[in-house]
Amino acid sequence: MRKRKGLIAACLLVVLVGAAMYFSNLTNRAKKAEQSSIEDVQQAAANVLPELSAWIVDWQWKQGIEDLSIIKGELTSLQLFAAYFDYKDSLYFTDKFQQALPEIMKIYKKNEQMQLYLTVVNDQFKENGESVQKDSSLIKRLVETEKSRKKHVDELIAAVDQFGLNGIEIDYERVEEEDWERMLLFYSELHTRLQKSGKSLRIILEPRAPIEQLKLPEGPEYVMMAYNLYGSHSEPGPKADEAFIEQLATRMEVLPGSPYMAFSVGGFDWHEDGKVEALTEERAGLLLKQTGSKAQRDQASGSMFFEYTDAEANNMKHTVWYADEVTLSRWINTAKANGISKAAIWRLGEIEMESLTNLKLYMQ
Questions:
Q1: What is the pLDDT of residue 111?
Q2: Cα Dmax for the chain
Q3: 296 near 306, Cβ under 8 Å?
Q4: Under a CB-based contact definition with an 8 Å cutoff, are residues 346 and 264 in contact?
Q5: What whole-number distance in Å separates Cα of residue 132 and Cα of residue 343?
Q6: Do 44 and 339 touch, CB atoms closer than 8 A?
Q7: What number is the average pLDDT over the span 48-73?
Q8: Could you give the C-alpha distances from 152 to 139, 140, 146, 216, 279, in angstroms and in order?
Q9: What pLDDT is recorded for position 362?
């Protein structure tokens, strides 16, 4: 009996040791696979040449052109922001857009390796003059049926041909969950039509977009917005931080092709009474000097922040967060370390020279 018990115990010991070795091997394989995956991403990033893209906006086009004149040689594309919609759901261009276009085209003709795209946004001007930003109901009407999609695609093709541009960029935000299937059809139909005339399609995606559940079409170029972590919708904080960028880069692995990651320069001024004001980098730096405040750098995001009191407004307290050249470099390098080598800058206009210089260096 004792011999039998001893034999059973020995067998159990052998089984336990074998199981331990088996699970240890599995763990080691998993670690090696994980390390290999990280190295693959890093190697892929190293093999992809960096590309730099930027937007120029209609309401600040003169300052935008000043920045454009400095970095135009490094840009692979420039997006003209924007085409809006009128109360009849037709494309609408502001007077400032019409003024800016000839001046931008002069620069383009001297720098034709830079592609020009027309950005179309789902902002609508109502008949009474009011505007609605990021209108989900407008998207629904535009893509709801085959007939409505064709009408919309026809108008987009006519606009890009009229202005002599290289393509269209679709920036439709706050898409309702039930509209995504028709949005995908719209993307495919627009891409096919543009391809026939040698034009290209770029598609802007919000971080909230359920990209893991979407079968996005091959062919268009995708751009993920890496901002709005904090902003006019929230308490004070940075537009992005490194953890946010890393998470987005991981999610972007499901996107077709080699996507862009978009970074937002400048920042925001949060007033004590709840008002939030957007600031360019130049304006934020000027405000820092005028108020005699001392800025600090946030370690998690690389962003600058400071506080001041407005004596002319009943000593109202303000909190400012903004991105400088160090911030922008950290964001871009974080993305690159995680496999994203294409950067897009929202937006040109009153960017400090140090930041523009760093962007030029990124392309070298």
A1: 84
A2: 100
A3: yes
A4: yes
A5: 29
A6: yes
A7: 95
A8: 11, 12, 10, 19, 34
A9: 79
